[in-house]
Amino acid sequence: MRKFLFVWLGIFLISFAQAQDVHPPSADAMSIIRQISVGVNYYTGAAGISIPLANVSGRELGASIGLNYNSFGHRVQDVASSEGLGWSLAAGGSITRIVRGLPDDQEDGFCTPDKDDKEPDLFFFSFMGRSGKFVLDQQGQPVLFPFQPLSIKPGICRSVNSNSWEIIDENGVTYQFGLSSLERETISSRISDNSEPGISYVSTWHLSKVISANKTDELSFSYGSGSYSFVNYLFTKDDGACAINSTIKNRSSTVYVHAKYLETITTSGGRIELSWNNSRDDLIGGKSLSEVQVVNLEEDIVSKIRLSYSYFGSCQDRNCKRLRLDSINDLQSIPLYSFEYNTTFSLPSRDSKSIDYLGLYNAYTGNEWIPYFSATYPGATRNPDEDKMQADLLTSINHRGGGYSTFYYESNDGYRDGVFKSTVSGNRIYLKVSADGMGNIQRNFYKYLVEGSTTQSSGILFRSPVFGYSRDGGYDYLTRFSHASNELFDLNGANIGYSRVEEIIEGKGKTIYEFTNYDDHPDIDAAGNATSGEPPFVSVTSKFWERGNVKKVTMKDLNNRILTQDSYEYTFNHPEKSVVTGEKSLYLQQYCSQGDLLVGTYQIISKPFTLQKKISEIYDQIDPSNVKKISTTEEYFYDLTNFQRIRTVSYNTVDASEQYNSAIKYITSTAYNSTSLNSCLSTYNSCYKNCPIGDDACVQSCYSTYLSCISSNSSDARTKVIYALKAKKAINTVIEQRNYLTRTSQALVELGTSVSLYRFDGPGSKWIVPDTQWQSTKGSTGLTTINASGFFILPSNFQLMHTYNEYEDIYGRLVQETTRGGDVKAYTYLHDNTILGSTTINPGSYGMSTSSEFKPLVGATKVVDINNRSSSIEYDLVGRQRLVYDHEGNIVQRIRYHSKDEVPNFSIKSSSEQAIVGQNVTFSLDDIFVPTGGEAEFAWDMDNGTVYDDNRQEVVTSYSNEGMYSIKAVISANEFEPEIKTLNYLVSDPLQISICADGPQVIDLCGITPVSYGSCTVNNNSPSNNTQFYANFAQPSSTGCVGFYTYQWQYKKSTDSVWTTMTVTDSNMTFPPFVNTEGNYQVRCTATDGCGNTNVAYSYINYYKSNPSCT
After folding, report:
1. Are residues 1061 and 1021 in the same domain?
2. Are residues 226 and 198 in the same domain?
3. What are phi and psi of 595, to 5 degrees?
4. Above 50 in pLDDT, residue 432?
5. Measured between alpha carbons, how far is residue 95 from residues 136, 178, 215, 242 in Å?
6. What is the rounded CA–CA span in Å between residue 312 and residue 322?
7. From the DSSP assignment, how many helices (H) and strands (E) are in the chain?
8. Mean pLDDT estimate for the chain
9. Is residue 999 part of a domain?
10. How far apart are CA 647 and CA 612, in angstroms?
11. Can you spell out the DSSP letters for 588-600?
12. What is d(CA 12, CA 494) in angstroms, rounded to the nearest whole number?
């Protein structure tokens, strides 16, 4: 059996090589997992920090991009994501995995026959604001935990392994991942001492497409590629009488990431484009997000966001530096947001030994990797340090306009097995200060205490770290690890939770939150003969979803009087939907020559949990005793297949004799079941599962066969549509909504039932669209159902309320509907049917219409009312309304925006990053923004004696001398002082190289005439030495464009016509020693500078015979 080790200080802190084989995804994918897992809530003490960057809406689907920040703390080994340390990009989506043991889909993996690996990989998905976790069982079927009613078609571990994934949500929307290698991210890793074979696998499948249920709208995603590598550090040490030696073993891993970077999200309404910086000081081959812009259907850039960076670092070494996000800017001169961080302490080098048990920075200053075990076996300390764990942590967000949000942190604290831990690794927020820039400041304090105490923490620590284990079988034997070897985080990404948290809102009162926690919902230790906390460090059976659910929210005023209180009850004992068992084993030495096989098993359980009851209490503020209240109870009921909420019951908590019921019947309701039609559906689902992902023809063939099947079993179009919706997996489609009252010892009172019916429409009847809406008369009874013959039953007491008459044939947009009163509404659309253009009531001679014209993704530019009077709107460059005109073209509103210290803004662009003497360069002004609008004037100083003051925005020029030029441009606008921007531009002399030989250059093959040596020969002066040729700049200034140079070396006999090209691309080459036959050889070097300019130089090497007859 092959075993691999990959070290990651993340959700799981990794064990020694023999026991814990965990392989995580890349730094960017990992930051997303952490954001999904840690969450932003009072239960973990994490600050909620998210920043929107861009949003584009289409006909039915839309896309957005933002940044999230994880305030838990930075592990010393962390590699900063492409958005900066602690930040993650919330955009698109992905399925990513943490490999346990071997990749599931590779030889001997969990879902392969006769597998050696008995642990399933952990998969995490995130898309369009949704997230979750699953594993694949031994048959390759997804098992979600906790349960979610999603359809997942795996890309691995199935008979058709496309390496692409598909998820369909409850609305029938399809999400496809990794359709090609361009959307898959791979990882390779190898132990530094090469004691084990390396491993390579697909770690992340990025979102490729999103397709609406009717396939009338689509999002597509494109990615760029990059590669980088880093080292994760891990060391082990054996001690004791049985130890072979007590030297430290280096079990560190070098990780190679073949990353993907999101570049474009295309929607039917426009696209979002992302640009990336191609180099980073902290990560060889790494990239950073530089710009996000939104482009509408008219190819106008309607939004542009730039991200600015620097680096954290206590030294200049690459391992010390970490990418730091400094600000987010749009076209205006003042940043949208700028960021401040705790730099009292900066993280040390990534290979630092100053780490606590979770890998955060601590106060240890020694030089030991192996931690302390006992007085006999001393070592490093892994104790947390409250100050240093805040190194480089975000402390303030400054908003344009003078507002800010400042965060203050403290270490976690809590209890483990009844023992209080005053300093627990990881940060929690204890104060947030918010200011609006207008003098208003709000302070929110957070206390994590049990009720009635001013000192006792409500925190519960889930697990304690294990850094080693000892055995005594006649001889002592100790194994220690540099990092904790057991899993310290649960699958929700938390290592501690707080049962009770107070948020004290200064000057207003407080809100108290109470949560389910580990004391009532613990994980289950592994089964088998493996002892908890010892090898092989088996995972637990996790119940993470049962923790962190709010139990009670109480609001109090400044006098500590209760204002409101909401209480929540959950059901966690629903039947299990599926269970996957994982197993880990290890032969562990007990005596110097003997040992035992230790085996532990754990389970991944897929089961739902539901909110069962909510009690809402509003307290009488006049009552001096603060006990009088109005209390309302809501109870919730669910179907037991998809766990959709199908009924809500509301009543007075004190007197439950009268209860208001609201019931929903989805297409999944048992009322809409037919045995014969269910058989058709089962056949379709099997057919669909066997189709390769992305094979639309296969799916369509299955669907057509399915429609034929249901048509042969039911002639009712309404029934067919319901079953077609089931095939589309649009299970959230509502058919019936019913409201009624129940009273003790009295008859049920019907309050009204509404029914929505659907129909096939569009070309080839391939769409399913709303058809009609019906309403029962008050007090009447009768409910919808499908009978045994497959007919849909709509009771006769229902009245037609609304008819959706017509849809357009391209994208299925509604173009006409009729209300119960007979009014007809007609609609037209603009910009590829993405925006409503006009509405007409009762089309015809007496129709009333309103219409609009739009700048897509900005707003209406013209609005015409029912009296045919129009108004027009102009916008500034950042999409804000600037001028409003009436129907006669008069300005009726002028809107101006001012931010403190704001000035006009622009940037200088050049057609190339640098140039050579005499080369034409184009300089232009870009992103020009004048806060007050209106016209501006421009002037240039080219730093060579040339000045342009003719208001031009573009200059084409060249320079006759080399040097660094400071090109200046100035903008003049009303109400502002002139604003100057400078661009430093390097001009170099044209590239010119020469070649010299180091070593023998003229060689007598007879050995009679002394060898002549090249002009740069110093020590290479033996006739038998190989000759080196060097390319040098002909003059110190003849560098051409500086940067990365490439060299092409070639040689040939002077009598030949074909050059032989060598593989070397450096500035020096060794002449091939096998070329020593008589002849004069020409040597040619072609150098290319950073701008692509080339220069060629020649030299020679001559082999001759002074005696033609010598051999």
Report:
1. yes
2. yes
3. -165, 180
4. yes
5. 13, 9, 22, 45
6. 5
7. 4, 72
8. 91
9. yes
10. 11
11. EESSSS-EEEEEE
12. 10
Q: Which domain holds residue 394?
A: 22-570+578-589+597-609
CATH number, domain at 964? 2.60.40.10
> What separation, in Å, do the N-terminal and C-terminal C-alpha atoms of the chain show?
61
Q: Is the pLDDT of residue 933 over 80?
A: no
Residue 489 and residue 538 in one domain: yes
Report the alpha-carbon distance of residue 392 to residue 312 in Å, rounded.
7
Pick from 210, 306, 223, 219: which is nearest to 271 by CA?
A: 219
Rounded CA-CA distance 861/300 in Å is 15
- Nearest residue to 127 (alpha-carbon basis) of 155, 161, 96: 96
User: pLDDT value at position 18?
Assistant: 30
Supply the pTM of this predicted model. 0.89
Single-letter residue type at 299: E
User: Domain for residue 139, yes or no?
Assistant: yes
Cα atoms in the Cβ-side hemisphere of radius 13 Å centred on 203? 27
Task: Please state, in angstroms and rounded to a whole number, the distance separating the CA atoms of residues 851 and 862.
Answer: 8
Give the CA distances from residue 638 to residues 377, 448, 538, 653, in Å, rounded to whole numbers and listed in that order.
58, 34, 35, 21
Q: Considering 988, 1005, 1027, which residue would you say is the last residue of a domain?
A: 988
Per-residue confidence band for 32, with pLDDT thresholds at 50, 70 and 90 = very low
Helices 696-713, 675-689: crossing angle, 10 deg rounding = 170
Closest CA to 425 of 380, 387, 369: 387
In eight-state DSSP terms, residue 380 is B
CB 1079, CB 1101: distance < 8 Å: no
Per DSSP, the three-state class of 236 is: strand
Which H/E stretch holds residue 680?
helix 675-689
182 with 319, same domain: the answer is: yes
Indicate if 918 and 1029 belong to the same structural domain: no
The answer to whether 144 and 150 have CB atoms below 8 angstroms apart is yes
Segment (H or E) for 949 = none
pLDDT for 9: 26
pLDDT per position as a tens digit, 751-774: 999 999 999 999 999 999 999 999
Report the distance separating Cα 973 and Cα 936, nearest Å.
Answer: 5
pLDDT of residue 72: 94
Is 389 a residue whose pLDDT tops 80?
yes
Same-domain check for residues 962 and 1028: no
pLDDT band at 140 (very low <50, low <70, confident <90, very high): very high
Residue 836 falls inside a structural domain: no
Q: 268-288 burial by CB neighbour count: b if 16+ within 10 A, else e?
A: bbbbbbbbbeeebbbbebbbb
Q: Locate tokens 């010299």: which residue?
A: 996
State the greatest distance between any 2 C-alpha atoms of the chain, in Å, as a whole number.
129
As for how many domains the chain has, the answer is: 3
pLDDT at 112 (0 to 100): 85
- The answer to the question of residue 724 being in a domain is no
Give the per-residue pLDDT at 722: 98
Phi, then psi, of 392 in degrees rounded to 5: 60, 20
One domain for residues 290 and 407: yes
Same domain, 531 and 502: yes
**Listed residues 988, 1019, 1045: the one ending a domain:** 988
User: pLDDT tens-digit profile of 981-1013?
Assistant: 999 999 999 999 999 999 999 999 998 899 999
Higher pLDDT, 401 or 515: 515
